[in-house]
UniProtKB/TrEMBL annotation:
Residues 34-257 form the L-type lectin-like domain. The keyword Protein biosynthesis does not apply. Its main location: endoplasmic reticulum. This is Protein ERGIC-53. The chain crosses the membrane at residues 469-488. SUPFAM superfamilies: Concanavalin A-like lectins/glucanases (SSF49899). It is found in: Endoplasmic reticulum-Golgi intermediate compartment membrane. The lineage of its organism: Eukaryota, Metazoa, Chordata, Craniata, Vertebrata. Residues 1-22 form the signal peptide. It comes from Lonchura striata. CDD domains: lectin_ERGIC-53_ERGL (cd06902).
Length: 500
Protein backbone atom coordinates (compact mmCIF):
# COMPACT_ATOMS: atom_id res chain seq x y z
CA UNK A 1 0.00 0.00 0.00
CA UNK A 2 2.94 2.31 0.55
CA UNK A 3 3.80 2.36 -3.18
CA UNK A 4 0.68 4.15 -4.45
CA UNK A 5 0.74 6.37 -1.36
CA UNK A 6 4.29 7.57 -2.06
CA UNK A 7 3.38 8.15 -5.71
CA UNK A 8 0.32 10.12 -4.66
CA UNK A 9 2.39 12.25 -2.28
CA UNK A 10 4.83 12.85 -5.11
CA UNK A 11 2.00 13.77 -7.43
CA UNK A 12 0.50 16.18 -4.92
CA UNK A 13 3.89 17.66 -4.03
CA UNK A 14 4.47 18.50 -7.67
CA UNK A 15 0.88 19.60 -8.10
CA UNK A 16 1.32 20.89 -11.62
CA UNK A 17 0.53 18.31 -14.33
CA UNK A 18 -2.70 19.89 -15.53
CA UNK A 19 -1.50 23.43 -14.91
CA UNK A 20 1.73 23.18 -16.87
CA UNK A 21 -0.15 21.62 -19.74
CA UNK A 22 -2.64 24.49 -19.79
CA UNK A 23 0.19 27.04 -19.63
CA UNK A 24 1.99 25.34 -22.47
CA UNK A 25 -1.04 25.38 -24.75
CA UNK A 26 -1.79 29.01 -23.86
CA UNK A 27 1.78 30.16 -24.42
CA UNK A 28 2.32 29.13 -28.03
CA UNK A 29 0.29 27.21 -30.54
CA UNK A 30 3.17 24.83 -31.30
CA UNK A 31 4.06 24.14 -27.65
CA UNK A 32 3.31 20.55 -26.63
CA UNK A 33 0.82 19.56 -23.98
CA UNK A 34 2.94 18.51 -20.98
CA UNK A 35 1.68 16.07 -18.36
CA UNK A 36 3.50 14.76 -15.32
CA UNK A 37 3.83 10.97 -15.23
CA UNK A 38 4.18 9.84 -11.61
CA UNK A 39 4.68 6.18 -12.57
CA UNK A 40 7.93 7.10 -14.34
CA UNK A 41 9.25 9.51 -11.73
CA UNK A 42 10.86 9.62 -8.30
CA UNK A 43 11.74 12.44 -5.94
CA UNK A 44 12.40 12.92 -2.22
CA UNK A 45 11.62 13.38 0.62
CA UNK A 46 9.66 10.06 0.69
CA UNK A 47 11.49 8.35 -2.12
CA UNK A 48 11.94 4.94 -0.57
CA UNK A 49 9.49 2.61 1.10
CA UNK A 50 9.94 0.65 4.28
CA UNK A 51 11.17 -2.44 2.37
CA UNK A 52 13.91 -0.38 0.68
CA UNK A 53 12.34 -0.26 -2.79
CA UNK A 54 11.35 2.72 -4.89
CA UNK A 55 7.69 2.76 -6.03
CA UNK A 56 7.36 1.98 -9.77
CA UNK A 57 11.15 1.53 -10.13
CA UNK A 58 13.61 -1.37 -9.87
CA UNK A 59 17.18 -0.84 -8.75
CA UNK A 60 20.14 -3.13 -9.39
CA UNK A 61 23.82 -3.58 -8.52
CA UNK A 62 25.28 -1.25 -5.92
CA UNK A 63 22.39 1.27 -6.04
CA UNK A 64 21.14 2.30 -2.60
CA UNK A 65 17.83 4.18 -2.39
CA UNK A 66 17.26 6.41 0.65
CA UNK A 67 14.57 8.90 1.63
CA UNK A 68 15.75 11.80 -0.51
CA UNK A 69 18.03 10.29 -3.17
CA UNK A 70 19.31 7.12 -4.83
CA UNK A 71 23.06 6.55 -4.54
CA UNK A 72 23.72 4.65 -7.75
CA UNK A 73 27.36 4.07 -6.83
CA UNK A 74 29.41 4.93 -3.80
CA UNK A 75 32.93 6.26 -4.27
CA UNK A 76 34.55 2.82 -4.19
CA UNK A 77 36.45 1.08 -6.99
CA UNK A 78 34.61 -0.91 -9.69
CA UNK A 79 31.06 -0.25 -8.60
CA UNK A 80 28.02 -0.23 -10.84
CA UNK A 81 24.35 0.23 -10.38
CA UNK A 82 21.17 1.33 -12.12
CA UNK A 83 17.49 2.19 -11.61
CA UNK A 84 14.79 1.42 -14.20
CA UNK A 85 11.08 2.04 -14.50
CA UNK A 86 9.07 -1.13 -13.89
CA UNK A 87 6.81 -0.41 -16.84
CA UNK A 88 7.29 0.60 -20.44
CA UNK A 89 6.14 4.07 -21.25
CA UNK A 90 3.06 4.27 -23.46
CA UNK A 91 3.67 7.72 -24.90
CA UNK A 92 5.50 8.77 -28.05
CA UNK A 93 7.09 12.02 -26.89
CA UNK A 94 8.46 12.85 -23.49
CA UNK A 95 10.59 15.10 -21.34
CA UNK A 96 12.68 14.08 -18.33
CA UNK A 97 14.21 16.35 -15.69
CA UNK A 98 17.01 14.64 -13.77
CA UNK A 99 18.73 16.16 -10.75
CA UNK A 100 22.00 14.56 -9.66
CA UNK A 101 25.33 15.07 -7.93
CA UNK A 102 28.68 13.56 -8.92
CA UNK A 103 31.12 14.11 -6.08
CA UNK A 104 34.56 12.80 -5.35
CA UNK A 105 37.73 13.79 -3.56
CA UNK A 106 39.94 13.38 -6.62
CA UNK A 107 40.66 16.06 -9.17
CA UNK A 108 39.65 13.41 -11.70
CA UNK A 109 36.73 11.03 -11.18
CA UNK A 110 35.26 8.02 -12.93
CA UNK A 111 33.46 6.60 -14.75
CA UNK A 112 30.24 8.52 -15.07
CA UNK A 113 26.48 8.44 -15.19
CA UNK A 114 23.98 7.65 -17.96
CA UNK A 115 20.32 8.52 -18.54
CA UNK A 116 18.49 5.98 -20.70
CA UNK A 117 15.41 5.50 -22.80
CA UNK A 118 15.56 1.96 -24.20
CA UNK A 119 13.26 -0.72 -25.49
CA UNK A 120 14.39 -3.10 -22.73
CA UNK A 121 15.76 -2.52 -19.26
CA UNK A 122 19.58 -2.60 -19.32
CA UNK A 123 19.82 -3.95 -15.79
CA UNK A 124 23.51 -4.86 -15.88
CA UNK A 125 26.43 -4.29 -18.23
CA UNK A 126 29.62 -2.46 -19.16
CA UNK A 127 28.17 0.87 -20.36
CA UNK A 128 28.16 3.08 -17.24
CA UNK A 129 26.65 0.19 -15.29
CA UNK A 130 24.04 -0.70 -17.93
CA UNK A 131 23.72 -3.17 -20.79
CA UNK A 132 25.40 -2.75 -24.14
CA UNK A 133 23.64 -3.15 -27.55
CA UNK A 134 20.68 -1.17 -26.34
CA UNK A 135 17.84 -0.12 -28.60
CA UNK A 136 17.18 3.51 -27.88
CA UNK A 137 19.26 6.37 -26.62
CA UNK A 138 21.77 6.96 -23.83
CA UNK A 139 22.86 10.38 -22.61
CA UNK A 140 26.27 9.88 -20.98
CA UNK A 141 27.88 12.10 -18.38
CA UNK A 142 31.39 10.80 -18.88
CA UNK A 143 33.84 11.90 -16.14
CA UNK A 144 36.93 9.99 -17.19
CA UNK A 145 38.98 10.83 -20.28
CA UNK A 146 39.71 7.34 -21.71
CA UNK A 147 41.03 8.55 -25.07
CA UNK A 148 43.19 11.32 -23.57
CA UNK A 149 41.74 14.08 -25.75
CA UNK A 150 41.24 16.35 -22.74
CA UNK A 151 37.50 16.64 -23.46
CA UNK A 152 36.14 15.16 -20.22
CA UNK A 153 34.07 15.59 -18.17
CA UNK A 154 31.64 15.84 -21.05
CA UNK A 155 28.12 14.99 -22.16
CA UNK A 156 27.48 12.83 -25.22
CA UNK A 157 24.33 11.46 -26.84
CA UNK A 158 24.66 7.97 -28.31
CA UNK A 159 21.86 6.26 -30.22
CA UNK A 160 21.81 2.51 -30.82
CA UNK A 161 19.59 0.15 -32.83
CA UNK A 162 20.42 -2.83 -30.60
CA UNK A 163 23.47 -4.00 -32.58
CA UNK A 164 26.22 -1.50 -31.82
CA UNK A 165 28.89 -2.13 -29.19
CA UNK A 166 29.81 0.97 -27.24
CA UNK A 167 33.35 2.25 -27.96
CA UNK A 168 34.35 2.86 -24.35
CA UNK A 169 38.09 3.30 -25.10
CA UNK A 170 37.39 6.34 -27.26
CA UNK A 171 34.67 7.73 -25.00
CA UNK A 172 32.18 6.92 -27.76
CA UNK A 173 33.55 9.77 -29.84
CA UNK A 174 32.94 7.91 -33.14
CA UNK A 175 29.36 7.07 -32.17
CA UNK A 176 28.22 10.32 -30.62
CA UNK A 177 25.26 12.00 -32.33
CA UNK A 178 25.85 15.21 -30.36
CA UNK A 179 27.92 16.33 -27.40
CA UNK A 180 28.97 19.22 -25.21
CA UNK A 181 31.83 19.67 -22.78
CA UNK A 182 30.62 20.40 -19.24
CA UNK A 183 32.17 19.79 -15.86
CA UNK A 184 29.36 18.39 -13.72
CA UNK A 185 31.52 17.08 -10.82
CA UNK A 186 31.71 18.68 -7.35
CA UNK A 187 29.29 21.56 -7.93
CA UNK A 188 27.82 23.72 -5.14
CA UNK A 189 24.24 22.84 -6.21
CA UNK A 190 22.83 19.70 -7.82
CA UNK A 191 23.26 19.47 -11.59
CA UNK A 192 19.96 19.54 -13.51
CA UNK A 193 19.42 18.03 -16.92
CA UNK A 194 16.36 18.42 -19.10
CA UNK A 195 16.07 15.94 -21.97
CA UNK A 196 13.23 16.51 -24.40
CA UNK A 197 12.16 14.16 -27.17
CA UNK A 198 9.47 15.84 -29.23
CA UNK A 199 8.60 15.56 -32.93
CA UNK A 200 11.66 13.37 -33.56
CA UNK A 201 14.07 15.92 -32.08
CA UNK A 202 16.07 15.14 -28.98
CA UNK A 203 17.40 18.12 -27.03
CA UNK A 204 19.62 18.18 -23.95
CA UNK A 205 19.66 21.24 -21.68
CA UNK A 206 21.86 21.46 -18.61
CA UNK A 207 22.01 23.53 -15.43
CA UNK A 208 25.60 23.16 -14.31
CA UNK A 209 24.92 23.42 -10.57
CA UNK A 210 26.45 26.85 -10.10
CA UNK A 211 23.13 28.45 -9.12
CA UNK A 212 20.15 27.22 -7.13
CA UNK A 213 17.87 28.60 -9.87
CA UNK A 214 15.92 25.59 -11.11
CA UNK A 215 15.12 27.13 -14.49
CA UNK A 216 18.65 28.28 -15.30
CA UNK A 217 19.17 25.82 -18.17
CA UNK A 218 21.61 26.24 -21.00
CA UNK A 219 21.77 24.44 -24.31
CA UNK A 220 24.03 21.38 -24.54
CA UNK A 221 23.11 19.16 -27.48
CA UNK A 222 20.45 18.55 -30.12
CA UNK A 223 19.77 15.59 -32.42
CA UNK A 224 17.25 15.97 -35.22
CA UNK A 225 15.38 13.22 -37.10
CA UNK A 226 15.97 10.77 -34.29
CA UNK A 227 13.79 7.67 -34.30
CA UNK A 228 13.32 6.09 -30.87
CA UNK A 229 11.20 3.12 -29.89
CA UNK A 230 7.58 4.17 -29.44
CA UNK A 231 7.55 2.45 -26.06
CA UNK A 232 10.44 1.99 -23.68
CA UNK A 233 11.91 2.10 -20.21
CA UNK A 234 13.49 5.09 -18.54
CA UNK A 235 16.59 4.41 -16.53
CA UNK A 236 19.65 5.89 -14.94
CA UNK A 237 22.91 4.07 -14.28
CA UNK A 238 26.46 4.75 -13.10
CA UNK A 239 29.82 3.06 -12.71
CA UNK A 240 33.20 3.63 -11.10
CA UNK A 241 36.59 2.23 -12.20
CA UNK A 242 40.07 2.64 -10.75
CA UNK A 243 38.96 6.11 -9.73
CA UNK A 244 35.61 6.60 -8.04
CA UNK A 245 32.87 9.15 -7.42
CA UNK A 246 29.61 9.13 -5.53
CA UNK A 247 26.82 9.19 -8.12
CA UNK A 248 23.63 10.41 -6.42
CA UNK A 249 20.31 10.97 -8.18
CA UNK A 250 17.98 13.30 -6.29
CA UNK A 251 15.04 13.24 -8.68
CA UNK A 252 13.88 11.82 -11.98
CA UNK A 253 10.72 13.49 -13.26
CA UNK A 254 9.03 12.36 -16.46
CA UNK A 255 6.45 14.28 -18.48
CA UNK A 256 4.43 13.10 -21.39
CA UNK A 257 4.45 15.48 -24.36
CA UNK A 258 1.52 15.51 -26.75
CA UNK A 259 1.09 17.60 -29.85
CA UNK A 260 -1.64 20.23 -29.46
CA UNK A 261 -5.03 18.84 -30.41
CA UNK A 262 -3.98 15.24 -29.68
CA UNK A 263 -4.36 15.35 -25.90
CA UNK A 264 -5.22 12.13 -24.14
CA UNK A 265 -7.72 12.04 -21.26
CA UNK A 266 -6.68 13.70 -18.02
CA UNK A 267 -5.02 11.56 -15.32
CA UNK A 268 -8.14 11.79 -13.17
CA UNK A 269 -10.09 9.82 -15.76
CA UNK A 270 -7.32 7.21 -15.95
CA UNK A 271 -7.40 6.38 -12.27
CA UNK A 272 -10.46 4.31 -11.40
CA UNK A 273 -12.85 5.97 -8.98
CA UNK A 274 -12.33 3.22 -6.37
CA UNK A 275 -8.53 3.65 -6.41
CA UNK A 276 -8.90 7.41 -6.22
CA UNK A 277 -11.00 7.18 -3.06
CA UNK A 278 -8.49 4.80 -1.56
CA UNK A 279 -5.58 7.12 -2.35
CA UNK A 280 -7.49 10.06 -0.94
CA UNK A 281 -8.17 8.17 2.28
CA UNK A 282 -4.53 7.13 2.60
CA UNK A 283 -3.35 10.63 1.88
CA UNK A 284 -5.58 12.06 4.59
CA UNK A 285 -4.32 9.47 7.03
CA UNK A 286 -0.75 10.37 6.09
CA UNK A 287 -1.52 14.07 6.53
CA UNK A 288 -2.88 13.40 10.05
CA UNK A 289 0.22 11.41 10.94
CA UNK A 290 2.39 14.25 9.70
CA UNK A 291 0.48 16.81 11.77
CA UNK A 292 0.81 14.60 14.83
CA UNK A 293 4.56 14.25 14.26
CA UNK A 294 4.86 18.00 13.82
CA UNK A 295 3.09 18.65 17.11
CA UNK A 296 5.29 16.13 18.88
CA UNK A 297 8.39 17.73 17.45
CA UNK A 298 7.29 21.18 18.58
CA UNK A 299 6.56 19.85 22.05
CA UNK A 300 10.00 18.25 22.26
CA UNK A 301 11.85 21.26 20.82
CA UNK A 302 10.08 24.34 22.17
CA UNK A 303 13.19 26.51 21.59
CA UNK A 304 12.99 26.01 17.80
CA UNK A 305 9.72 27.99 17.68
CA UNK A 306 11.36 31.18 18.83
CA UNK A 307 13.75 31.40 15.92
CA UNK A 308 11.60 33.03 13.25
CA UNK A 309 10.91 35.99 15.59
CA UNK A 310 14.52 37.15 15.06
CA UNK A 311 13.60 38.27 11.58
CA UNK A 312 11.27 40.92 12.98
CA UNK A 313 14.20 42.99 14.31
CA UNK A 314 16.69 44.93 12.37
CA UNK A 315 20.32 44.53 13.36
CA UNK A 316 22.72 47.49 13.45
CA UNK A 317 24.52 46.38 10.32
CA UNK A 318 21.20 45.86 8.52
CA UNK A 319 20.15 49.38 9.40
CA UNK A 320 23.47 50.83 8.24
CA UNK A 321 23.20 48.95 4.99
CA UNK A 322 19.66 50.20 4.49
CA UNK A 323 20.72 53.80 5.20
CA UNK A 324 23.62 53.53 2.76
CA UNK A 325 21.27 52.09 0.21
CA UNK A 326 18.76 54.93 0.65
CA UNK A 327 21.55 57.52 0.45
CA UNK A 328 22.84 55.96 -2.74
CA UNK A 329 19.34 56.04 -4.17
CA UNK A 330 19.04 59.76 -3.44
CA UNK A 331 22.39 60.48 -5.10
CA UNK A 332 21.34 58.34 -8.02
CA UNK A 333 18.13 60.35 -8.43
CA UNK A 334 19.99 63.66 -8.31
CA UNK A 335 22.46 62.49 -10.91
CA UNK A 336 19.62 61.36 -13.12
CA UNK A 337 18.02 64.80 -12.85
CA UNK A 338 21.35 66.43 -13.72
CA UNK A 339 21.68 64.19 -16.70
CA UNK A 340 18.23 65.19 -17.94
CA UNK A 341 19.05 68.86 -17.60
CA UNK A 342 22.37 68.45 -19.37
CA UNK A 343 20.54 66.76 -22.22
CA UNK A 344 18.21 69.74 -22.43
CA UNK A 345 21.16 72.11 -22.57
CA UNK A 346 22.77 70.07 -25.26
CA UNK A 347 19.55 70.22 -27.21
CA UNK A 348 19.40 73.99 -26.85
CA UNK A 349 22.99 74.32 -27.90
CA UNK A 350 22.33 72.24 -30.97
CA UNK A 351 19.45 74.54 -31.88
CA UNK A 352 21.70 77.54 -31.35
CA UNK A 353 24.45 76.11 -33.54
CA UNK A 354 22.01 75.24 -36.28
CA UNK A 355 20.53 78.77 -36.12
CA UNK A 356 23.97 80.31 -36.46
CA UNK A 357 24.87 77.99 -39.34
CA UNK A 358 21.64 78.89 -41.11
CA UNK A 359 22.36 82.57 -40.62
CA UNK A 360 25.83 82.21 -42.12
CA UNK A 361 24.44 80.22 -45.02
CA UNK A 362 21.83 82.93 -45.69
CA UNK A 363 24.42 85.66 -45.67
CA UNK A 364 26.58 83.64 -48.04
CA UNK A 365 23.61 83.19 -50.40
CA UNK A 366 23.37 87.02 -50.72
CA UNK A 367 19.84 87.98 -49.77
CA UNK A 368 18.58 91.52 -50.47
CA UNK A 369 20.12 93.76 -47.83
CA UNK A 370 17.03 94.99 -46.05
CA UNK A 371 15.31 91.63 -45.83
CA UNK A 372 18.55 90.04 -44.73
CA UNK A 373 18.90 92.55 -41.95
CA UNK A 374 15.32 91.94 -40.80
CA UNK A 375 15.86 88.23 -40.74
CA UNK A 376 19.20 88.58 -38.98
CA UNK A 377 17.60 90.83 -36.39
CA UNK A 378 15.05 88.11 -35.65
CA UNK A 379 17.69 85.44 -35.65
CA UNK A 380 19.89 87.37 -33.28
CA UNK A 381 16.95 87.86 -30.94
CA UNK A 382 16.28 84.12 -30.94
CA UNK A 383 19.94 83.44 -30.35
CA UNK A 384 19.99 85.87 -27.45
CA UNK A 385 16.86 84.29 -25.99
CA UNK A 386 18.34 80.83 -26.36
CA UNK A 387 21.49 81.98 -24.64
CA UNK A 388 19.47 83.42 -21.80
CA UNK A 389 17.59 80.14 -21.51
CA UNK A 390 20.89 78.27 -21.46
CA UNK A 391 22.19 80.51 -18.70
CA UNK A 392 19.00 80.01 -16.72
CA UNK A 393 19.30 76.24 -16.99
CA UNK A 394 22.95 76.30 -16.04
CA UNK A 395 21.92 78.22 -12.92
CA UNK A 396 19.27 75.58 -12.19
CA UNK A 397 21.86 72.88 -12.52
CA UNK A 398 24.17 74.75 -10.20
CA UNK A 399 21.47 75.04 -7.59
CA UNK A 400 20.55 71.38 -7.99
CA UNK A 401 24.21 70.40 -7.60
CA UNK A 402 24.36 72.56 -4.49
CA UNK A 403 21.25 70.79 -3.19
CA UNK A 404 22.78 67.42 -3.93
CA UNK A 405 25.99 68.36 -2.17
CA UNK A 406 24.04 69.65 0.78
CA UNK A 407 22.00 66.46 1.02
CA UNK A 408 25.16 64.35 0.75
CA UNK A 409 27.01 66.35 3.38
CA UNK A 410 23.82 66.29 5.48
CA UNK A 411 23.83 62.51 5.22
CA UNK A 412 27.49 62.38 6.24
CA UNK A 413 27.26 64.90 9.11
CA UNK A 414 23.64 65.05 10.18
CA UNK A 415 24.38 67.75 12.82
CA UNK A 416 26.10 70.30 10.62
CA UNK A 417 23.27 71.06 8.21
CA UNK A 418 22.03 74.06 10.26
CA UNK A 419 25.53 75.56 10.49
CA UNK A 420 25.98 75.25 6.80
CA UNK A 421 22.68 76.99 6.10
CA UNK A 422 23.51 79.86 8.45
CA UNK A 423 26.88 80.36 6.79
CA UNK A 424 25.19 80.36 3.44
CA UNK A 425 22.70 82.92 4.69
CA UNK A 426 25.47 85.25 5.87
CA UNK A 427 27.25 84.87 2.59
CA UNK A 428 24.08 85.86 0.79
CA UNK A 429 23.71 88.96 2.93
CA UNK A 430 27.35 89.86 2.31
CA UNK A 431 26.87 89.48 -1.39
CA UNK A 432 23.75 91.67 -1.33
CA UNK A 433 25.60 94.37 0.59
CA UNK A 434 28.36 94.29 -1.99
CA UNK A 435 25.83 94.73 -4.74
CA UNK A 436 24.20 97.69 -2.94
CA UNK A 437 27.59 99.27 -2.39
CA UNK A 438 28.54 98.82 -6.00
CA UNK A 439 25.24 100.32 -7.15
CA UNK A 440 25.71 103.39 -4.97
CA UNK A 441 29.23 103.91 -6.23
CA UNK A 442 27.97 103.53 -9.72
CA UNK A 443 25.24 106.16 -9.16
CA UNK A 444 27.69 108.62 -7.62
CA UNK A 445 30.09 108.23 -10.48
CA UNK A 446 27.36 108.73 -13.04
CA UNK A 447 26.11 111.99 -11.44
CA UNK A 448 29.49 113.75 -11.32
CA UNK A 449 31.41 114.77 -14.43
CA UNK A 450 34.77 113.19 -13.89
CA UNK A 451 36.91 116.13 -15.23
CA UNK A 452 35.67 118.92 -12.86
CA UNK A 453 36.89 119.02 -9.28
CA UNK A 454 34.32 119.67 -6.60
CA UNK A 455 34.25 123.26 -5.19
CA UNK A 456 32.53 124.54 -2.09
CA UNK A 457 29.72 127.07 -2.85
CA UNK A 458 30.63 130.71 -2.10
CA UNK A 459 29.11 132.14 1.06
CA UNK A 460 26.80 135.14 0.70
CA UNK A 461 28.28 138.56 2.04
CA UNK A 462 27.95 138.95 5.77
CA UNK A 463 25.65 141.99 6.77
CA UNK A 464 27.66 144.73 8.74
CA UNK A 465 25.31 145.98 11.46
CA UNK A 466 28.08 146.54 14.11
CA UNK A 467 30.97 148.96 13.59
CA UNK A 468 34.43 148.51 15.10
CA UNK A 469 34.20 151.67 17.31
CA UNK A 470 30.93 150.55 18.84
CA UNK A 471 32.40 147.20 19.55
CA UNK A 472 35.41 148.59 21.41
CA UNK A 473 33.21 150.96 23.54
CA UNK A 474 31.01 148.02 24.47
CA UNK A 475 34.06 145.98 25.55
CA UNK A 476 35.46 148.88 27.66
CA UNK A 477 32.15 149.39 29.50
CA UNK A 478 31.91 145.72 30.24
CA UNK A 479 35.47 145.70 31.68
CA UNK A 480 34.80 148.71 33.94
CA UNK A 481 31.58 147.19 35.25
CA UNK A 482 33.35 143.88 36.00
CA UNK A 483 36.24 145.58 37.91
CA UNK A 484 33.69 147.60 39.92
CA UNK A 485 31.79 144.50 40.92
CA UNK A 486 34.97 142.69 42.01
CA UNK A 487 36.05 145.68 44.22
CA UNK A 488 32.57 145.88 45.80
CA UNK A 489 32.66 142.20 46.66
CA UNK A 490 36.09 142.37 48.34
CA UNK A 491 34.96 145.38 50.52
CA UNK A 492 31.85 143.50 51.65
CA UNK A 493 33.95 140.41 52.62
CA UNK A 494 36.37 142.64 54.69
CA UNK A 495 33.42 144.24 56.62
CA UNK A 496 32.00 140.86 57.44
CA UNK A 497 35.35 139.69 58.90
CA UNK A 498 35.41 142.67 61.37
CA UNK A 499 32.12 141.55 63.05
CA UNK A 500 33.45 138.08 63.90
CA1 LIG B 1 35.11 7.88 -20.44
CA1 LIG C 1 37.69 11.84 -23.90
Amino acid sequence: MAAPLAALVLLLALGRPALSGAQATEGAAAAPHRRFEYKYSFKGPHLVQADGTVPFWVHTGNAIPSADQIRITTSLKSQKGSVWTKNKSIFEYWEVEVTFRVTGRGRIGADGLAVWFTEEQGLDGPVFGAADKWNGVGIFFDSFDNDGKKNNPGVIVVGNNGKLLYDHQNDGSTQALASCQRDFRNKPYPVRVKITYYQKTLMVLINNGFTPDKEDYEFCAKVEDMVLPSQGYFGISAATGGLADDHDVLSFLTFQLTEPGKETPTPDAEIPQKDKEKYQEEFEHFQQELDKKKEEFQREHPDVQGQPADDAFETVSDRELRQIFEGQNRIHLEIKQLNRQLDMILDEQRKYVSAVTEEIAKRGAGFPDQQGQQVSQQEIETVVKTQEEVIRQVKEIRSSVTDALRSISGAQHPGSAGVYETTQHFNDIKEHLHIVKRDIEHLVQRNTPSTEKQKCPELPPFPSCLSTVHFFIFVAVQTVLFIGYVMYRSQQEAAAKKFF
